[in-house]
Amino acid sequence: MTNGYLPEGMKLSTDENQEYLASLAGLERAMNEEAILEGIVTLCDADLCLHVDLAGMEGIIEPDEAVFCRAGETRKDIAIISRVGKPVCFTVLSITVEGGKVVAKLSRRRAQERCIGYYMEHLRAGDLLEARVTHLESFGAFLDIGCGVSSLLSVDCISVSRISHPRDRLSPGMSLWVAVRSVDRESGRIYATLRELLGTWEENAAAFKVGQTVTGIIRSVESYGIFVELAPNLAGLAELREGTAEELRLHIGHSAAVYIKSIVPDRMKIKLILIDVNCAEPPRKKLPYFLSPATTPHLSHWIYSPSTAHRLV
């Protein structure tokens, strides 16, 4: 979905943002046009006012203008303090010049209200959005989907291959594309999903052939076998021979070399033979998107399983 609401920090170095902040005249133009700009917070003072670097001019965001709160929510001071050293979006409320010093009153809250208002009116389930990971919890990842507006990406929506914690796949500050899972217009909350962008079973399995020995990540050790992730949306099962777990010191999250014994699309099964285990955690790879948001801004439907499979996913 193409819109002007991007995660905080993505406008900071753009020509448009730099042009607005290059002079007093530019800042006045931004105020008159109600443009959304970005700057770095350099200080949170004792009154919880955020001080923003405006390229030689000073911006002030007062506490009530720092964070948008939904109905029934109470503003948390940590939400203000934690912005120090980070980029914030804002609109310009007023500009004063005293003794040659330019001081602008800014509002992050108004920028967020505009973003949420736009999303509540226009977003549909399946729309693609650019996002940035802000922090991780055991149940999911919180994303900035525009102007600091938060969205939850639950752990079960991160990938088809099961992970024990979002940090197994994501990290704070990471940029990614997600699809809108649902929009709750009563609460003003938006929920995201990622796994639909990471390919179907067939698309992922096409990268592998029987007889290959490849690397994967151990995701689960069960009594009947070891689940090894070959790609975020594809895992295979390696037989667990007696004593294997103890001999190879199997640990979830470690990389493993596996031999591909068979690929069975009808059952969505990949049978593996465990060759060796690397006790170090594998390096983080880029997410393998199987579609381009530029050409596919909306997903109307998504089926993971092959057309010949006995089970529909």
Feature tags:
single chain, 313 residues, alpha+beta, 5-stranded mixed beta barrel, 5-stranded mixed β-barrel, 6 helices, 15 strands, 36% strand
Task: Map the helices and strands.
Elements: H1 15-21, H2 24-33, E1 37-44, E2 50-54, E3 57-61, H3 77-81, E4 87-98, E5 101-107, H4 108-122, E6 128-137, E7 140-144, E8 150-154, E9 175-184, E10 189-193, H5 201-205, E11 213-222, E12 225-231, E13 234-238, H6 244-248, E14 255-264, E15 269-278
Parallel strand pairs: 3-5, 8-10, 13-15
Antiparallel strand pairs: 1-2, 1-4, 2-3, 4-5, 6-7, 6-9, 7-8, 9-10, 11-12, 11-14, 12-13, 14-15
Description:
The chain is an alpha+beta fold and 313 residues long. Helices cover 15% and strands 36% of the residues. The chain is built from six helices and 15 strands. It has helices at residues 15-21, 24-33, 77-81, 108-122, 201-205, 244-248; strands at 37-44, 50-54, 57-61, 87-98, 101-107, 128-137, 140-144, 150-154, 175-184, 189-193, 213-222, 225-231, 234-238, 255-264, 269-278. A five-stranded mixed β-barrel has the order 1-2-3-5-4. Strand 2 and strand 3 (57-61) form a beta hairpin. The chain is elongated. The two termini are 26 Å apart. The relative contact order is 0.11. The model has no long low-confidence stretch (mean pLDDT 92).
**Tally of alpha and pi helices:** 6
Radius of gyration: 24 Å
Helical fraction: 10-25%
Strand percentage, roughly? 35-45%
pLDDT averaged residue by residue: 92
Q: Sheet bearing the most strands, described?
A: 5 strands, mixed, barrel
SSE class: alpha+beta
Could you list the spans in which at least 5 consecutive residues all have pLDDT below 50? none
Q: Rough shape?
A: elongated
Number of strands: 15
Strand order, main sheet: write it out: 1-2-3-5-4
The helix/strand order is HHEEEHEEHEEEEEHEEEHEE
